[in-house]
Amino acid sequence: MERLPKIGIPLFIGLVIVIILLAKSTVTIDSGEAGVLYKTFGGGVVTEGSPLSEGFHVVAPWNKVFVYEVRQQSIDEEMTVLSSNGLEISLDASVWFQPEYEALGKLHQEKGEAYIQRLLQPAIRSATRAVVGRYNPEQLYASKREAIQKEIFDETNLLLEDQYVQVNEVLVRDVSLPSTIKDAIERKLRQEQESLEYEFRLSKAEQEAERQRIDAEGKARANTILSESLTDKVLQEKGIQATVELAKSPNSKVIVIGSGEGGMPIILGDN
Known about the structure:
Elements lengths: L2 H22 L1 E4 L3 E7 L4 E2 L9 E4 L5 E6 L3 E10 L5 E12 L4 H7 L4 H18 L4 H6 L2 H15 L5 E12 L2 H51 L2 H16 L5 E4 L9 E4 L2
Antiparallel strand pairs: 1-4, 2-3, 2-5, 6-7, 7-8, 9-10
Helix pairs in contact: 3-5
């Protein structure tokens, strides 16, 4: 009976050690994540093949697993950059990105867990400075936001080529200019709009005047042609045709042949 406690203590200690080793030998990777295996006695970071996928994994207790989020993520950047003429422009942008799944081991080995701060953000800021520096404030404020988005996206992807990070989209949320520059641009845009409106009204008036001139010329030409075509004989023929039609009418009348001017008949009615 006295030997039982002496035997039980080592067993208890051994059981605790086994439990600790088992706890350190398992890892659970959540949805939207992947794991990079580090082999302490086997060459360090495993860069070949796919990373550890979602679910439960058993690893040697002396190895480590670094877990990364591999679904699409977003970061917001607020930057102050210079336009082509040296004015300070405040620009807010959102960037959608994710690490390249199959290259997760290389990303961990070369860039580390802080790859967003070390790699992604400097690339975005550099690309934004380069792109905004090509435009003047008026272009940035009025008409070039979509072009700027695409150019920042393209420039960022060039900088991140072969860097194991995939940029899916760049969204420019806001471009802020100094208030004096913004007011001057808005005044210029209003003046341009008013000028365009005046030119439109002037063009419409000119078109209406031209339409009226053409219409008048057409009527004058028609009257000239009609006047030249109405000879005495034509008028007499028209008069004879009208007399025949009137003679067929049931209304009472008196027709005097050859008594009118130019030999045209005179028609006398009841009155």
